Amino acid sequence: MRITVISVGKIKEKYIVQGIAEYKKRLSPYAKLQIIEVADEKAPENLSEAEMQQIKQKEGERILQHIDQNQYVIALAIEGEMWSSEKLAKELDKLTTYGNSNIVFVIGGSLGLSKKVYDRANGLLSFSKMTFPHQLMRLILLEQIYRAFKINRGEPYHK
């Protein structure tokens, strides 16, 4: 299985970088993992709706440049479907069983994702109705992907 995580912005916090490195290492026996960072748009505090859409559009174009036609895309979005860890494991297993072994997870910037990215996505996944920093979301996503592999293999993992 090949998993790609495309996210907007660089991670500056050392503890998050270390956590991501740990889960990349843990995932290596299970899947080929690629993390792609696309640049975020600098934005002032007070933006009009049009300016917000323009920023999301620019970030969205950068994201879409890294997605191939044959990849299965799951965009992280508050309005997406909420899954348990077991459901994520089941969905990943189902995708690989039916020939979708090249999966992309997309994490937007602080304003979210553009309509074009939503339109390209095969599914929308929500981790919570709460808003998380997109940098921290990358770490949480990798932990859940790792957990999904452990569940699918029947291997023990801390609950």
From TrEMBL:
Binding of S-adenosyl-L-methionine, residues: L76, G108, F127, S128, K129, M130, T131, F132
Annotated localization: Cytoplasm
EC number, UniProt record: 2.1.1.177
Superkingdom: Bacteria
GO molecular function: rRNA (pseudouridine-N3-)-methyltransferase activity
Keyword Chloroplast carried by entry: no
GO cellular component: cytoplasm
InterPro entries: Alpha/beta_knot_MTases, RlmH-like, tRNA_m1G_MTases_N
Pfam families the UniProt entry points to: SPOUT_MTase
SUPFAM superfamilies per UniProt: alpha/beta knot
Binding partners and assembly: Homodimer.
Job of this protein: Specifically methylates the pseudouridine at position 1915 (m3Psi1915) in 23S rRNA.
Protein name, per record: Ribosomal RNA large subunit methyltransferase H
Species: Vulcanibacillus modesticaldus
